[in-house]
Structure formats: structure tokens, C-alpha cells
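Q: Please design a sequence for this.
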């Protein structure tokens, strides 16, 4: 590829690489992820430095992966030996192409799509963009093969101008980003191996994943200095089933679930309060009862879980919110049923004691502590349950574990158990209290200010990349104590699911997302804006790289 690139101006080089990458179909979960890794490796190997140092390009196979997917690494070492190293990383998989519908055969053909959208009068925004010639279409063009191409363009720049780089540059491409992030999770081991063997000091990792306007007509170019994390906050609600003929004697778990849903779902008063950031409230991702056929018995249990983005909040704070909401829901239901029962009893002249409608609320950790104290082997029951349901959805397995534990304890009391289930993405941001992170943060301010003056484009620094990204796995702001709060409340942790917490803590690399710019990722109108992405962004990334690698303070006062 180098031969085709070497005489082109930089923006054309990057476009050429991006087109070559988009042409390789690499839908998440398919062998296309292997094909794109091969393509990336082939491009890097064609660069002069790597033809001279072929051992500086290598791949790492994912463990136990039937498809043989792999991460690709390339290390450009500084001519003057130093440990100072910057990482560029990106993911190489894309989401599927079914959303293109009848256009599916052309999903990887930017020129066909541009011609098509130029005549598409059902959406004037996309039509104008296509007609302008400034936008490139196709699956993965925005998310994020153009970001990968920018990294490869910059790698080529430094291969040809090594004197501009006062440190090492490690470029890394990972598979499996669009669902479970296994590529980057396994790559943490490789980053640690390299750090130890080559004595590298990772000063900064730059992801090039896409950024988008936050509202229609938003002209701002965003740079993110961290990643939002994610937790799945789950409820297991056990009520007391009853015949509908005695409905007020029972505790209907769907009523508790409804109250919890009402109290959490899409409610901004439950969201974190952080000014000038994109902060989202919890959203309900699952809400069902246990019944799988019709009868006249009320439901015995209900299952409910919520997506929680984590910005600054600790896992413990999420747990406390879930618990508080469940306690309130149970108290409200008790009062409600007591009212209903009085009306009912009065109406039919019923005498005697009212039923007890109390339900206990506990965390999974509290639940298992009591079981362990009474001699129940939680680990063994977990293991047996997981083995019984090998292919089950992670979340369903968590519910089965809780039910197996309840059965072992013979515990049928109405209750709400609060827990976490996969996936879990750690959160990170550049912290003011950590000198190296604060330094990066100040450098971003300086570089964006300069870029604004030079290009006339408005830039803004935000702390939390609003889409989940691989960068979550290179650093985490959670302390060991905070991750303990997750693990002890996570059924099957280490058995059905885990993330490399030790490695992430050990790496703790400050991360930035300096992304290519475009619109409508994950839709058939996905498109990339060339003038900024190929013309401005590569220079910004290099400026940041050089500023971080050079020892001087660069006019920044920490
Ligand atoms: Zn992406």
C-alpha cells in the first residue's frame, strides 16, 4: 500500500486507507474481523520502517476464539532510546449491514452511496451532504475505520519524519468492540508484557472513535478526556403468589416492579448532576414476570434491570440508589395494599387480622453473607447452576443463580434482591488530583484553543465520551474498594463473566478520544466529514502526541 500512498497529500492518503479498510467487510462476530486484521497488518508492513523491522508488527490471537480473531500491534521506536510512549488505538469491527435494506450489496461502496444519497429527496440533510462531496458514506466509514486510517496516516507521517517524535508510538487495533470488548480486554495483557519487556511508560492513549454533533446543527468538534462507564442494575423481586380469588392476600411482584420502574426509568432526578456534560438517566432494559403460561395465579417473581451510565458516581452509590428505590417501593406497596384491604374487608364485612405485606430488601452481597453464615456453599451452587445452563444469557444465569440459592436456603419470603450483571464498563476521566492526568488535561485545553484560532471551528472539551468505547478498559477511576462493591454483588463473577481489573489498574493510562467527525453512526446514513477528519484532526493528534512526549511543560502550568 505504501507505494500507492507515498506521493499523495496527507488527507488523500488517509482517505485512500479508509476506503481500503471499508472495502473489507468486518461485521462484529464474523470472520471478517480476521480479514480486516490481516488488511491492517498488510498496510503497516508496507511502510519502510516496518519492512526494515518486521518484528515490530505483530498480532495477538484472542484466547479460545473459534473465529481466530486477533489484535494488531505496531511499535515505532524512537531513534533515541526512551521509555516515553503514546498509544494510538481503534477498533476494527463494525456493526452489521442489514440496516441498508435494499442497498445492502452497496453498503461498502462509498461512491455508489454518495451518488444514491445525492438524489435522495426524503432527507434534505443527507442529500445536501452527499451533493457537497465533503462526506464519505459506507458501513464503518465513521465508526471507526476512518479513525483507524487517521492513526495509520499519522504512523506513516512519523515513519517518514522520525525526528518529530521524541518517544515511542505504539499503534493497536482491536476486534470485538461492538459488543463485549474482549479484544481490548485481552490486549491489556499484551500492553503489560510490552511495558515490562521493553520498559515502556505509557503516557497517553488516543482513541479515534467517532464524534458527532450533539444536536441538529451543532457545529462543535468535541474531544473527550475520558469514558463513561456502565453498570447493569438488576432487581430480583420475589412476591407471594396467590389465587386471584384471594388477590389481596398476596404480594404481586409486578406491582413492586412497576413502582421501581416508575421511580427510576428515564428520570433525570436519578441521574448524576454534572454541568455541561451529556448525562443520561437510568433506562429500563428488561421488565418481566416469571409466568410462562396463563393461569389464575398471580406472578411469583419479577425480573427487572436498568442500564446505568457511570460518570463520577461510584458503584456503591448506584447500589444505594437501587436499594433506596426498592425500599420505598416495598413500603408504598404495603401501605397501598393495606388501604385496599380495609376497603375490601369493610365491603364484605370481613373480620380478623389483615395479611402481612412486608417484603425485605437486600443486596446480593447481604443475601449471600447470610446464606454463607448458615452453612450454604454459595460458590458450589453458583458453579452447578452455571454448568446446568451453559449457553444462557448472562443476565438469565444471574437470576437462576439467585433462585438456586433461595431454593437451597428454603427461603420463600417476599423480598427484593439487588445486584449487578454483565456488562460492566469501568469509567475514567482525567483527574485533577493526579499530576500526569492533569498535565494531559491542560495540554488538551491549550491545543484546542490554538486549533480554534487557526481553523475558526468551535472546539469543546468534554469529560465523558457518550458512547461506550474500548477506552473504558485502559484506565479506571474506581478504587479497589469500589470494584469490591461490584464483585460482591455480581452473581457468577469470575465464573460467567469478569473483566481484567488487575491489569486495568496496573495500566491506568490516561485516555483521550480525538475522533473523526460525522453523523448517524450505526445507521445506513452513516457518513464522515472529510475536511475536519482528514484535514484537521490528524494534525491535532500529532500536536497532542508531541506535546505529551516532549519532556518540557509546553507553556502549560500544572
Ligand atoms: Zn466505535
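A: Design:
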Amino acid at each position: 500500500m505504501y507505494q500507492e500512498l507515498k506521493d499523495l497529500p496527507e488527507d488523500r492518503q488517509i482517505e485512500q486507507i479508509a476506503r481500503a479498510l471499508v472495502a473489507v467487510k468486518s461485521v462484529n462476530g464474523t470472520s471478517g474481523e480476521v480479514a480486516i486484521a490481516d488488511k491492517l497488518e498488510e498496510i503497516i508492513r508496507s511502510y519502510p520502517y516496518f519492512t526494515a523491522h518486521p518484528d515490530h508488527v505483530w498480532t495477538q490471537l484472542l484466547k479460545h476464539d473459534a473465529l481466530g480473531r486477533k489484535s494488531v500491534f505496531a511499535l515505532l521506536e524512537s531513534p533515541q532510546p526512551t521509555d516515553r510512549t503514546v498509544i494510538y488505538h481503534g477498533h476494527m469491527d463494525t456493526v452489521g449491514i442489514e440496516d441498508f435494506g435494499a442497498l445492502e450489496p452497496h453498503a461498502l461502496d462509498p461512491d455508489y452511496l454518495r451518488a444514491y444519497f445525492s438524489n435522495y429527496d426524503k432527507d434534505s440533510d443527507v442529500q445536501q451532504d452527499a451533493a457537497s462531496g465533503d462526506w464519505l458514506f459506507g458501513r464503518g466509514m465513521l465508526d471507526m475505520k476512518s479513525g483507524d486510517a487517521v492513526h495509520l496516516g499519522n504512523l506513516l507521517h512519523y515513519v517518514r519524519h522520525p525526528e518529530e517524535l521524541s518517544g515511542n508510538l505504539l499503534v493497536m487495533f482491536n476486534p470485538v468492540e461492538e459488543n463485549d470488548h474482549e479484544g481490548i480486554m485481552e490486549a491489556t495483557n499484551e500492553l503489560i508484557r510490552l511495558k515490562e519487556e521493553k520498559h515502556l511508560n505509557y503516557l497517553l492513549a488516543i482513541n479515534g472513535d467517532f464524534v458527532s454533533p450533539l444536536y441538529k446543527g451543532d457545529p462543535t468538534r468535541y474531544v473527550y478526556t475520558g469514558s463513561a462507564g456502565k453498570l447493569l442494575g438488576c432487581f430480583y423481586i420475589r412476591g407471594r403468589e396467590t389465587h386471584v380469588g384471594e388477590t389481596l392476600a398476596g404480594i404481586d411482584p409486578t406491582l413492586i416492579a412497576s413502582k421501581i420502574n416508575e421511580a427510576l426509568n428515564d428520570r433525570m432526578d436519578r441521574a448524576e448532576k454534572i454541568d455541561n456534560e451529556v448525562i443520561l438517566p437510568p433506562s429500563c432494559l428488561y421488565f418481566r414476570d416469571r409466568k410462562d403460561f396463563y393461569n389464575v395465579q398471580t406472578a411469583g417473581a419479577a425480573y427487572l434491570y436498568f442500564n446505568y451510565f457511570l460518570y463520577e458516581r461510584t458503584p456503591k452509590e448506584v447500589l444505594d440508589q437501587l436499594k433506596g428505590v426498592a425500599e420505598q417501593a416495598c413500603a408504598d406497596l404495603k401501605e397501598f395494599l393495606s388501604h385496599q384491604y380495609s376497603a375490601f374487608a369493610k365491603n364484605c364485612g370481613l373480620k380478623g387480622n389483615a395479611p402481612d405485606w412486608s417484603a425485605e430488601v437486600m443486596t446480593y452481597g447481604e443475601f449471600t453473607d447470610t446464606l454463607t453464615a448458615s452453612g450454604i456453599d454459595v460458590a458450589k451452587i453458583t458453579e452447578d447452576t452455571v454448568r446446568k445452563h451453559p449457553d444462557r444469557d448472562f443476565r438469565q444465569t444471574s437470576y437462576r443463580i439467585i433462585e438456586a440459592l433461595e431454593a437451597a436456603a428454603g427461603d420463600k419470603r417476599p423480598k427484593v434482591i439487588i445486584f449487578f450483571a454483565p456488562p460492566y464498563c469501568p469509567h475514567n476521566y482525567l483527574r485533577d488530583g493526579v499530576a500526569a492526568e492533569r498535565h494531559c488535561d491542560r495540554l488538551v485545553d491549550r491545543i484546542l484553543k490554538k486549533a480554534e484560532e487557526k481553523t475558526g471551528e468551535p472546539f469543546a472539551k468534554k469529560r465523558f465520551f457518550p458512547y461506550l468505547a474500548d477506552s473504558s478498559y485502559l484506565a479506571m477511576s474506581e478504587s479497589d474498594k469500589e470494584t469490591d462493591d461490584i464483585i460482591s454483588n455480581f452473581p457468577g463473577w469470575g465464573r460467567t463473566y469478569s473483566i481484567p481489573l488487575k491489569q486495568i489498574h496496573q495500566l491506568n493510562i490516561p485516555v483521550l478520544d480525538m475522533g473523526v467527525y460525522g453523523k448517524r453512526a450505526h445507521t445506513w446514513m452513516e457518513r464522515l466529514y472529510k475536511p475536519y477528519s482528514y484535514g484537521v484532526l490528524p494534525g491535532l493528534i500529532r500536536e497532542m502526541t508531541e506535546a505529551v512526549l516532549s519532556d518540557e511543560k509546553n507553556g502549560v502550568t500544572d
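Q: Thanks. Anything notable?
A: The first strand starts at residue 57 and ends at 61. Residues 2-227+427-474+509-549 form a domain with the Aminopeptidase fold (CATH 3.40.630.10).
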